[in-house]
Amino acid sequence: MARSVWKGPFVEESVIKKVDKQKNDTNKKPIKIWSRKSTIIPDFVGISFLIYNGKKFIPITVSEDMVGHKFGEFAPTRQFFGHTPADKKAKDSPAKPEEKK
Questions:
Q1: Which residues, in sequence order, are CB contacts of 33 under 8 Å at separation 6+?
Q2: Domain ranges (residues) in the chain
Q3: CA nearest to 31, candidates 18, 44, 40
Q4: What's the rounded Cα separation, in Å, for the pair 68 and 63?
Q5: Is residue 85 very low, low, confident or very high in pLDDT (cuts 50, 70, 90)?
Q6: Residue that wins the pLDDT comparison between 85 and 36
Q7: Could you write out the DSSP letters of every residue in the chain?
């Protein structure tokens, strides 16, 4: 279920404070955030973030296309390594011909 329109987008206060602080600074280091549930608002366009995915920080630079989405959408938490090697062996090897007696 989506959030009510009259409430507006949810953005963690700590993220807003960090963005405001960086706008006043000349140092443009990426902002580390843990709030994957925060919505990207137009104030964040052009700012780089490091979003935590549970294991490491994923670097993201916010563009206009990202506005309205959540930070967590751009930092996947799971990585697909493929199917088990046994499945690959069965698929790659040809069928054995039957032996004649």
A1: 12, 14, 15, 18, 49, 50, 51, 52, 71
A2: 28-78
A3: 18
A4: 11
A5: confident
A6: 36
A7: -PPPGGG-----HHHHHHHHHHHH-S--PPEEE--TTPBP-GGGTT-EEEEE-SSSEEEEE--GGGTTSBGGGGS-S-----S-HHHHHHHHSPPPPPPP-
In whole angstroms, what is the distance from residue 92 CA to residue 4 CA? 52
Residue 69 contacts by C-beta under 8 Å, 6 or more apart in sequence?
Answer: 39, 40
Give pLDDT tens digits for 28-40.
899 999 999 999 9
CATH code for the structural domain at 28-78: 3.30.860.10
Q: How many CA atoms lie within 13 A of 55 on its CB side?
A: 5
pLDDT, residue 94, reads: 66
